[in-house]
Amino acid sequence: MARDAGRTLVEKLVADMKPTPLSAATMEAARELDGDVEGFSVLGVGAGTAKLTLEEHRAVDVALNEAFARGLRDSGKVRHLAFMSAAGADPTAKADGGGAAGMSRYNRVKGESEEAVRASGPEVVSVFRPGMIIGSQHTPWLLEKVLPLFSFVTPARYRSIRTDQIAKAMIATSKHHPATSAIFHYPEMMALIADGDR
Question: What pLDDT is stored for residue 12 in this prediction?
């Protein structure tokens, strides 16, 4: 999408992917850019969370996202962060439940990551909570084919959504910042896309 819009993509590698180096690298990268800078994060473990301990999962989804958000804020150049979490995120969910997507421990870690990013990040954080993501390498192909068939009985906030739709919704908030931090589920994401297409 960025290339199609005539944007130049610059890759910055963080050799030691730990909170302090990530925060420093993020702050430095933002300060190197002219004008206002937008923050985007889709950082997360992805598949395999069920095999991780709670602390291993938190080390990526909570600690690294918090460090990234802090680096954006400390750069002094970023006022808004579009941050992808997950439907069902809840920092009060049980920590001893399953670690797979949609299970209680997973939802707790996602909720904790949202809290950490809002506390340490830029002034405004737009949190995106997709349900099942169509087009993700982490989504089993059978679910990708079957779930959309049941969308008419799926609660709106948990409906499956394509990766490009999530990206378009995130970009929409970067073009027109919400006045305050907000959470976007499927219906709100689709509304953002529709507004952007007008």
Answer: 86
